[in-house]
Specification:
The protein is built from five helices and twelve strands. It has 242 residues and is α+β, with helices and mostly antiparallel strands. Strand 2 and strand 3 form a beta hairpin.
């Protein structure tokens, strides 16, 4: 049996991040945190059916599809940045670091959806409480990991950090698969937790300076098995660039 997520109420998310470096909210908690309805979040989900293949997978796999966009959140305003490459140093991503990856942009309809900006602004508010109010450089990734090759790897780079301040991993859908266990480890010690996100729009929040994380591979239990996530990172001081 999968381990259940250690959910906390949204009011306790900041304390949990400060105490242990991560927090997990169920979908109701996400809605309360952002002030969103279930229908508003559900309206985003169909866009995951139109993600192009990730052309940069160094393991030769065909299991990942994604889109990417960048934003700046500052003092209650959210502005979309010009489309840019996603870049990470090798220190944080030994498999795909050190290369500019130009993923297809987010659909304008997604960015214009009522829930989109509200959700990102709620995360900026959490980052303010974690590090202090300041501009946040936000990258948002829509991912679909499928089982086309019999196995899909949500984190082919293994346990890692992202080189940012706050990471949010929203589960959007989980269909016809087994596996996909989330694992979070203290970056400076032996402590860790493992659990499986299963509820659409539940979220794992991470203080990236304090923990490393990974998700185990998925295998199909039915044709077309896949796992959809929205990964949002917030970084102080600017975007990561080569």
């Amino acid at each position: 049996m999968p381990f259940p997520p250690p959910f906390v109420p949204p009011e306790a998310a900041s304390d949990a991040l400060a105490r242990q470096g991560h927090a997990v909210l169920d979908a109701a908690g996400v809605r309360r945190l952002a002030g969103l309805s279930a229908d508003a979040l559900a309206a985003l989900a169909p866009s995951w059916n139109d993600l192009p293949p990730d052309a940069y997978l160094k393991d030769g796999g065909r299991y990942r599809r994604r889109r990417h966009g960048s934003f700046v959140a500052d003092a209650g305003r959210l502005v979309q940045a010009p489309h840019r490459a996603h870049w990470q140093p090798l220190d944080y991503n030994a498999l795909h670091g050190g290369m500019e990856r130009w993923f297809e942009p987010l659909h304008p309809e997604v960015v214009a959806a009522p829930a989109w900006g509200t959700l990102l602004q709620a995360l900026a508010g959490l980052a303010d409480r974690l590090r202090g109010p300041q501009p946040w450089y936000v990258e948002a990734h829509q991912f679909r990991i499928d089982t086309t090759d019999g196995i899909g790897r949500p984190t082919p780079e293994g346990a890692h950090r992202d080189g940012v301040d706050l990471v949010a991993v929203f589960l959007v859908a989980r269909e016809g698969i087994k596996g996909g266990e989330t694992r979070v480890f203290d970056a400076a010690g032996p402590n860790g937790q493992r659990f499986t996100l299963a509820e659409p729009w539940s979220v794992l929040l991470l203080d990236d300076a304090r923990v490393i994380h990974e998700t185990t591979p998925i295998q199909p239990t039915a044709p077309g098995g896949h796992r959809d996530t929205l990964v949002v990172t917030l970084r102080a001081g600017g975007f990561q660039d080569a």
